[in-house]
Each structure stands twice: as structure tokens, then as C-alpha cells.
Design goal:
The chain is an alpha+beta fold. It folds into 2 domains: 21-27 and 107-230, 2-Layer Sandwich (D-amino Acid Aminotransferase, Chain A, domain 1); 30-102, no CATH class. The chain contains 4 helices and 11 strands. The protein has helices spanning 13-22, 79-92, 171-185, 217-230, and strands at 30-34, 48-53, 63-66, 69-70, 75-76, 98-102, 116-122, 125-136, 139-145, 188-196, 199-206. The strands form 2 sheets. Strands 1-6-2-3-4-5 form a 6-stranded antiparallel β-sheet, with no helix packed on it. The chain has a 5-stranded antiparallel β-sheet with strand order 9-8-7-10-11, sandwiched between helices. A hairpin with a 2-residue loop joins strand 8 and strand 9. It is globular, with a radius of gyration of 18 Å.
Length: 235
Amino acid sequence: MDGPYWQRKLSNKYNAREFAKLNGCRVPDLYWKGSEVDGIDFTSLPDQYVIRPTVGKCSKGVYVMDNGLNLFDQKSYTPEAIKHNLKQDLKNQPDLEFLFEEFVRTEDGKYVVPNDFKFLCFNGEVAAIVVIDRVSPRVGYSHFYDEDWNKLKKLHYLYPGKEEPEQPECFQEMLEQAKHLSKAYGIFVRIDFFATDKGPVFGEFTPTPAMGKNFTPEGKKLLLEYWDKYCKGLI
């Protein structure tokens, strides 16, 4: 918070997890961080783990690994193949780093691609919660709720709906943490969580969801109303 627009630093996923920790939120265990990918000891990793680049969007470059299988694309990868792919990413973006993190389990203890609980927040106020039942980085099913878990009209056109998800057992704790983080962040941000067998686990901050595109008229109206009421004059 040492200058204007300090929130931009939290688009870096490592910075974001450290900020969330400072504010009392759970984050996935961190196994390795860096860019020297030849130094990664894959034998020290558990059978399930996640790889995320510190900067990126739309889950690009994310691996959700379960015994060598990436659940995001249903392809198997050897450690050598993963290292090769990460090196290619570094050629395109030399300042990139990678996080090797815990693969958090669902509330019933399963290793599956977890639902995303995305809180659209304005300086401590939650306008809506988008729940995405994700199949892959670009395939999934979305549902929309207010903070009392009342269903809302569709807010954006991404991810057509499917069967309704159940409210997670840790929802109230997740909601409280989202509001606390949002107040600390100060301006509009989307805050992502996972519902796990350890309780809510922080995912990341997204300052410009979908770059502001693909929102329905109802979604635009709702978010603009919250912006004018709780973040007027802030960018």
C-alpha cells in the first residue's frame, strides 16, 4: 500500500496469496516457487498438486495434476514434458514465475476440479456471487447468487447453467473473508475462493473480470449500481 494503485501488485498470484494470509485467510500449501524449472524436484511433490503462473488469465498455463494426469485437459504429462512447457512459457514471458501448490480437496474430501466461488465485491460489499462448476479453463457451468444464497438472474453469458450447486458448508466463513478482503482491497475486485475439507481457501484477485465483456444487461445494471454506491469516483 505504498503508492497509488497499489492493488495492481495483487494481480500477481504470489503477492495475492501473501496478502490473503496477512488478512487471516487460508491459502493452498506452497511446495515450490520460481522460474528455474530445472531445479524442481518432482519426486518431492505429492501425487496431487497444482501449477499456476504468477501472472495470467483464463487459467492459461494451469495444471491440475492427479497422478500424472492434468484434469484440465485430460492429458498425461511427465515431469520432463511439464518442464519443457514451462520453459516455453518463459520464452514468451521471461519475468514469469510458477507456483506449485496444494491440490485442495472438496468438502467431501475428493480430488476433483473444484467449483469456483467468485465474489464480486465493492469496498466490503458483495454485489453477487458467481459459482462456476469448471470442467476446463474455458468450459464450465455458472450460477448466480446474492450473499443470502438467493438465486439471481444471469449476470454474464459465459458458462451456460447446469444443475444447481449446493451451498457449501463453509459458505458463511467464505462470505465473511470475502468482505474482509474486499474492504482491505478498497475498490472493486472479484475475489475467488474454493470450498474445501479445511474450510474456505483463497484463490486469487481479479480486478477486471472478463475485461468487462459478456455481461448481461442485468449484470451491468447491478454492478454499476454497486459501483456508484460504494466505489463512486474510484478506479
